[in-house]
Specification:
65 residues, Ubiquitin-like (UB roll), mainly beta, single chain, 1 helix, 5 strands, globular
C-alpha cells in the first residue's frame, strides 16, 4: 500500500496502523501517531484501517541532556 509517512512516500505491506508501527520497529517506543491530522490513540492502532495515499505522521520522543 502506498502511504505518505512523515512527508515521504512509502510502499508498505500494511492494512492497519499497527502494521506500520511493526514495520518501523516502534511498538515498544513512546510514539504518537497522527493520521490525516487526527491523533490516533494507541489502543486503536490495531483497528485503524489504512487507505492508499493516507498521510501518517509518527513522532517519537528521545531523552537527552
Amino acid at each position: 500500500m502506498r502511504l505518505r509517512i512523515n512527508g515521504k512516500p512509502a510502499d508498505l505491506e500494511a492494512t492497519v496502523l499497527i502494521d506500520v508501527m511493526r514495520h518501523y520497529g516502534l511498538l515498544d517506543q513512546l510514539v504518537v501517531a497522527e493520521i490525516d491530522g487526527r491523533i490516533i490513540d494507541r489502543t486503536d492502532w490495531e483497528m485503524m484501517p489504512l487507505v492508499e495515499e493516507m498521510r501518517i505522521e509518527l513522532v517519537h520522543f528521545v531523552g537527552g541532556g
